[in-house]
Design goal:
Layout lengths: L2 H23 L4 H5 L9 H25 L13 H10 L24 H18 L8 E5 L2 E7 H24 L8
Antiparallel strand pairs: 1-2
Helix pairs in contact: 1-5, 1-6, 3-5, 3-6, 4-6
């Protein structure tokens, strides 16, 4: 796949995530947003706060990478490293295997407000801006540190794909939580 195709697909996916959060979660009452489907499950707010924490980490690195990337005159094939393929497989929404999250990225037991939702949407706007700005950038440079071990680096294109797939995974988790909210809590 070439860079323009990847970026276009990711933009479409981010816009779909924005639509889902805006239409399904933004108008919910506090009780529905905080509802946990089971003792170890995350609420809608926890799912989105988890994504906000990842966005706070990855978006500044993506911004620096795009700004510093050499300009390309035409789209190039996107290459994936072993680490990139493994990372993408790990967060792929189709991968139903549960994974432990890092403690500082785990929103469980956090005091969260509905402000988590507009913050998530702001991160999506920033991500869309960066995907557009990356149109002429070399996405095959290893520039983005991996959150859990910063000496490892993802290629810029891999990191964009990782962020979007990870968001899709947890927005779907939030949708599953919403489906289990008792009828009386949903307005």
């Amino acid at each position: 796949m070439d860079t323009s195709t990847l970026l276009s697909q990711l933009q479409t996916q981010v816009q779909a995530l924005q639509g889902t959060v805006s239409t399904e979660f933004l108008t919910l009452e506090d009780a529905a947003l905080h509802f946990k489907p089971h003792a170890t499950g995350w609420s809608i707010l926890e799912c989105l706060e988890h994504l906000n924490r990842y966005s706070r980490f990855y978006l500044p690195y993506l911004e620096k990478a795009v700004a510093a990337a050499p300009a390309l005159s035409e789209p190039q094939p996107v290459r994936y490293s072993w680490l990139g393929r493994k990372s993408l497989d790990l967060v792929n929404p189709g991968n139903v295997k549960k994974h432990k999250t890092l403690q500082h990225m785990n929103p469980r037991h956090s005091t969260l407000s509905p402000e988590v939702l507009p913050e998530f949407l702001q991160h999506q706007e920033k991500l869309l801006y960066l995907l557009t700005a990356a149109a002429k950038a070399d996405l095959n440079q290893k520039t983005i540190p991996v959150e859990f071990f910063r000496l490892l680096k993802l290629r810029t294109g891999e990191a964009f794909a990782f962020v979007v797939l990870h968001q899709q995974r947890h927005v779907r988790q939030a949708q599953r939580a919403l489906a289990q909210v008792p009828v009386g809590l949903v307005a």
